[in-house]
Design a protein that fits this description.
The protein has helices at residues 20-29, 39-54, 82-112, and strands spanning 5-8, 15-18, 56-59, 66-69. The protein has 113 residues and is of the alpha+beta class. It folds into two domains: 1-54, no CATH class; 57-113, no CATH class. Strands 1-2 form a two-stranded antiparallel ribbon. Strands 3-4 form a two-stranded antiparallel sheet. A hairpin with a 6-residue loop joins strand 1 and strand 2 (15-18). The radius of gyration is 27 Å and the shape is elongated. Bound molecules: zinc ion (2 copies). One zinc ion is lined by residues 60, 62-63, 65, 80-81, 83-84.
Protein backbone atom coordinates (compact mmCIF):
# COMPACT_ATOMS: atom_id res chain seq x y z
CA UNK A 1 0.00 0.00 0.00
CA UNK A 2 0.96 3.62 -0.39
CA UNK A 3 2.17 5.91 2.34
CA UNK A 4 2.29 9.69 2.47
CA UNK A 5 5.63 10.93 1.24
CA UNK A 6 7.28 14.29 1.80
CA UNK A 7 8.78 15.75 -1.35
CA UNK A 8 10.66 18.96 -1.97
CA UNK A 9 9.38 21.44 -4.52
CA UNK A 10 12.02 22.14 -7.13
CA UNK A 11 10.51 25.53 -7.81
CA UNK A 12 10.31 27.15 -4.38
CA UNK A 13 12.07 24.56 -2.23
CA UNK A 14 9.12 24.06 0.07
CA UNK A 15 8.33 20.60 1.35
CA UNK A 16 4.97 19.19 0.40
CA UNK A 17 3.16 15.93 0.96
CA UNK A 18 2.63 13.50 -1.88
CA UNK A 19 -0.28 11.71 -0.29
CA UNK A 20 -1.05 8.02 -0.52
CA UNK A 21 -4.20 8.87 -2.46
CA UNK A 22 -2.24 10.94 -4.97
CA UNK A 23 0.34 8.19 -5.36
CA UNK A 24 -2.42 5.75 -6.08
CA UNK A 25 -3.91 8.16 -8.62
CA UNK A 26 -0.52 8.60 -10.29
CA UNK A 27 -0.01 4.84 -10.43
CA UNK A 28 -3.48 4.35 -11.89
CA UNK A 29 -2.79 6.90 -14.61
CA UNK A 30 0.56 5.32 -15.32
CA UNK A 31 2.59 8.38 -14.32
CA UNK A 32 6.06 7.25 -13.39
CA UNK A 33 7.44 10.58 -12.20
CA UNK A 34 6.65 11.99 -8.80
CA UNK A 35 5.35 15.56 -8.75
CA UNK A 36 8.19 18.07 -8.96
CA UNK A 37 6.35 21.04 -7.54
CA UNK A 38 4.15 21.87 -4.59
CA UNK A 39 0.51 22.61 -5.24
CA UNK A 40 0.96 26.37 -5.01
CA UNK A 41 3.65 26.33 -7.70
CA UNK A 42 1.67 23.97 -9.87
CA UNK A 43 -1.38 26.23 -9.65
CA UNK A 44 0.72 29.30 -10.36
CA UNK A 45 2.15 27.68 -13.49
CA UNK A 46 -1.30 26.60 -14.61
CA UNK A 47 -2.68 30.10 -14.17
CA UNK A 48 0.29 31.66 -15.93
CA UNK A 49 -0.08 29.52 -19.03
CA UNK A 50 -3.82 30.00 -18.98
CA UNK A 51 -3.39 33.76 -18.75
CA UNK A 52 -1.14 33.84 -21.79
CA UNK A 53 -3.47 31.72 -23.80
CA UNK A 54 -6.78 33.38 -23.16
CA UNK A 55 -6.24 37.10 -23.74
CA UNK A 56 -7.19 38.49 -27.12
CA UNK A 57 -6.66 41.94 -28.49
CA UNK A 58 -9.43 43.67 -30.35
CA UNK A 59 -10.45 47.17 -31.29
CA UNK A 60 -12.76 48.91 -28.88
CA UNK A 61 -16.10 49.60 -30.57
CA UNK A 62 -16.51 52.81 -28.61
CA UNK A 63 -13.19 54.65 -28.64
CA UNK A 64 -11.15 52.65 -31.17
CA UNK A 65 -8.52 51.84 -28.55
CA UNK A 66 -7.08 48.44 -27.79
CA UNK A 67 -9.41 46.18 -25.89
CA UNK A 68 -8.05 43.12 -24.17
CA UNK A 69 -10.64 40.47 -23.67
CA UNK A 70 -10.44 36.99 -22.12
CA UNK A 71 -12.35 35.43 -25.01
CA UNK A 72 -12.02 35.31 -28.77
CA UNK A 73 -13.89 38.35 -30.08
CA UNK A 74 -16.68 37.61 -32.51
CA UNK A 75 -17.25 39.67 -35.63
CA UNK A 76 -20.89 40.33 -34.84
CA UNK A 77 -20.38 41.44 -31.27
CA UNK A 78 -18.86 44.72 -30.17
CA UNK A 79 -15.84 44.64 -27.90
CA UNK A 80 -15.00 47.40 -25.46
CA UNK A 81 -11.82 48.35 -23.67
CA UNK A 82 -11.98 48.15 -19.90
CA UNK A 83 -12.61 51.89 -19.63
CA UNK A 84 -15.53 51.95 -22.04
CA UNK A 85 -16.88 48.73 -20.57
CA UNK A 86 -16.91 50.30 -17.11
CA UNK A 87 -18.64 53.39 -18.48
CA UNK A 88 -21.24 51.27 -20.22
CA UNK A 89 -21.88 49.30 -17.07
CA UNK A 90 -22.28 52.50 -15.07
CA UNK A 91 -24.68 53.81 -17.72
CA UNK A 92 -26.67 50.58 -17.67
CA UNK A 93 -26.89 50.73 -13.89
CA UNK A 94 -28.06 54.35 -14.06
CA UNK A 95 -30.70 53.34 -16.62
CA UNK A 96 -31.98 50.63 -14.33
CA UNK A 97 -32.29 53.10 -11.48
CA UNK A 98 -34.06 55.63 -13.73
CA UNK A 99 -36.51 52.97 -14.90
CA UNK A 100 -37.27 51.97 -11.33
CA UNK A 101 -37.84 55.58 -10.29
CA UNK A 102 -40.18 56.08 -13.24
CA UNK A 103 -42.16 52.98 -12.38
CA UNK A 104 -42.58 54.09 -8.79
CA UNK A 105 -43.66 57.55 -9.92
CA UNK A 106 -46.20 56.07 -12.35
CA UNK A 107 -47.58 53.80 -9.69
CA UNK A 108 -47.92 56.72 -7.31
CA UNK A 109 -49.75 58.73 -9.97
CA UNK A 110 -52.13 55.89 -10.66
CA UNK A 111 -52.83 55.49 -6.98
CA UNK A 112 -53.58 59.21 -6.66
CA UNK A 113 -56.22 59.17 -9.38
ZN1 LIG B 1 6.66 25.28 -4.67
ZN1 LIG C 1 -12.79 52.12 -25.42
Amino acid sequence: MYEDKTLKCKECGAEFVFTAGEQEFYAEKGFVNEPQRCKACRDARKNASRGEREWFEATCDECGGIAKVPFKPREDRPVYCSECFAKKQAAAAADTVADAVEEVAEAAEEAAE
